[in-house]
Design brief:
Layout (H helix, E strand, L loop, with lengths): L7 E5 L5 E2 L15 E5 L5 H9 L27 E2 L4 H7 L3 E2 L3 E6 L5 H14 L4 E5 L4 H8 L9 E5 L3 H11 L3 E5 L16 H18 L2 E6 L12 H5 L2 E6 L6 E9 L7 E7 L2 E4 L3 H5 L10 E8 L2 E13 L7 E4 L3 H14 L7 E7 L11 H13 L7 E3 L2 E2 L5 E2 L4 H10 L4 E5 L13 E5 L2 H8 L1
Parallel strand pairs: 6-10, 6-11, 7-8, 7-9, 9-10, 17-18, 19-22, 22-23
Antiparallel strand pairs: 1-2, 1-3, 4-5, 11-12, 12-13, 13-14, 15-16, 16-18, 20-21
Length: 465
């Protein structure tokens, strides 16, 4: 009897594109040498037959989810949310954890993803919600050793070490938890897919099963995902499209501070960030990031000024540092850390043209202190003043802050949420604030701070120097 040949296809490891033959370059994401051959699972006949008949259309008592409904019949009440125990994480999620949502958490190895989720599950279980932590990378003993740092764990939090998705699904339906953590999605194995764990097919099909479990049983899933060397979640790009929320845990693994950033959120804004500090007892949230970002700021040094940026609804004070040196070659070097390189080059061209400064003969290095990354136009004025301060070697006042967008004509343009920026500066003890003149309309000046409205870059330089 002739053996039945298994059907295979080629999948792109970057974006999940499927092709019948191998190609050197993926036509979807244009990545090279990313196509791998994997078996293709046939769709059961019963599923296709049910789809052709139209499930539930002939049954008046069928499930309403399988029947078209008008928009007026859809309930639009607010989704119930559960507090994670961290106000920083709740802010990034849009106010808390939405029940029945699928949340993907990515980050570099050793950054603290498992520690964060272990603390979140402890907080949720202490609030009376049953939680299941499924680990495919660690044994129960290893989890117990790591859990000793964060304190006593109650009985509402249970641990399970398994990689077989069918077994995990049965345990979830038996235990009926309100929250499940999968650590990690690359270690899970679906027996219906003849491919290795972590492959494109396995990750896609496994996430699809977890998505159905979350929506049909109203269970919240946290999925840990490995990242590639480029910093994106490993596996097909369709993985990020399937989940409700994508969170990235960023930071230097050898430093103490971590930043949690939302890359996608169906239930909230993606502009919020959360800041944590890694300590021996686990992760501790930083409720005042401005104070942390300004810690260690030098006094009386040229090329340093404080500006204000907005992350969603949160104002953050950031120190901008600039260092200018005469270039040793005909082509000056420009380097920007934490902000947009092209924006820095544009600002230096504006200063050279409108202020007459010979910056074309200077190497320029710009840095946003604290490891933060920002590209908001409100940083323009702070960057420009830091560059001029370093070029003239004149330090600015320690209690001076400046924000505003710089146009190509050298004008200072208005920015959004100026009231919140000024209030944050006054709260941290700043006494002078240079801001766009257009933002003065209807602006309330807090006690203890003086406002200096400016309309052009030359006027701002005179006020700062």
């Amino acid at each position: 009897m002739a053996s039945v040949k298994k059907k295979t296809a080629f999948f792109c490891q970057e974006c999940g594109y499927e092709s019948a033959k191998w190609m050197g370059q993926c036509p979807a994401c244009h990545a090279w040498n990313t196509m791998v051959e994997e078996p293709v699972r046939a769709v059961p006949a019963s599923r296709t037959a049910g789809a052709g008949r139209g499930i539930g259309l002939g049954n008046a008592g069928g499930d309403v989810r399988h029947r078209p409904v008008p928009l007026s019949a859809v309930e639009t009440k607010d989704e119930p949310r559960i507090s994670s125990g961290f106000t920083e994480l709740d802010r990034v999620l849009g106010g808390g954890i939405v029940q029945g949502s699928l949340i993907l958490v990515g980050g570099d190895p050793g950054i603290g993803k498992s520690t964060l989720l272990l603390q979140v599950t402890k907080n949720v279980s202490d609030a009376g919600h049953p939680v299941l932590y499924v680990s495919g990378e660690e044994s129960l003993r290893q989890i117990g050793l790591r859990a000793q740092r964060i304190g006593t764990i109650g009985g509402n939090l249970k641990f399970y070490c398994e990689t077989d998705l069918d077994t995990i699904s049965e345990v979830i339906l038996e235990e009926k938890p309100e929250m499940v953590v999968i650590d990690s999605i690359q270690t899970m194995y679906n027996a219906g897919v003849a491919a290795a764990p972590g492959s494109v097919s396995q990750v896609r099909e496994t996430t699809g099963v977890l998505l159905r479990l979350a929506k049909e049983n109203n269970i919240t899933f946290f999925i840990v995902g490995h990242v590639t060397k480029e910093g994106t979640v490993a596996g097909p790009r369709v993985l990020e499209h399937m989940v409700d929320t994508v969170l990235y845990f960023e930071g230097d693994r050898f430093a103490s501070y971590r930043i949690l950033r939302g890359n996608k959120n169906r239930f909230g804004s993606t502009n919020e960030i959360g800041i944590f500090e890694m300590r021996p007892e686990g992760l501790v949230q930083v409720e005042n990031p401005s104070e942390y970002l300004l810690s260690g700021r030098p006094h009386g040094a040229s090329g340093s000024i404080v500006t204000c940026s907005m992350e969603g609804t949160r104002p953050m004070l950031i120190e901008v540092q600039a260092l200018l040196n005469p270039t040793s070659f005909g082509f000056p070097k420009r380097q920007a850390t934490g902000t947009d390189y092209n924006r820095v080059s544009l600002l230096m061209a504006v200063m050279e043209k409108r202020l007459g400064l010979p910056l074309g003969q200077q190497d320029a290095y710009i840095n946003l202190a604290g490891g933060i990354r920002q590209t908001e136009p409100a940083l323009d004025l702070g960057i420009a003043l830091a560059v001029i301060s370093s070029y003239k070697n004149i330090p600015m006042e320690d209690h001076l802050i400046a924000f505003g967008e710089v146009g190509l004509s050298g004008e200072i343009r208005a920015v959004g949420m100026a009231q919140q920026r000024v209030a944050e500066a006054a709260k941290l003890g700043f006494t002078r604030c240079i801001l766009p003149k257009a933002n003065m309309r209807g602006l309330h000046c807090p006690d203890g701070i003086g406002l200096i409205p400016v309309g052009g870059l030359a006027e701002a330089v005179d006020a700062a120097m």
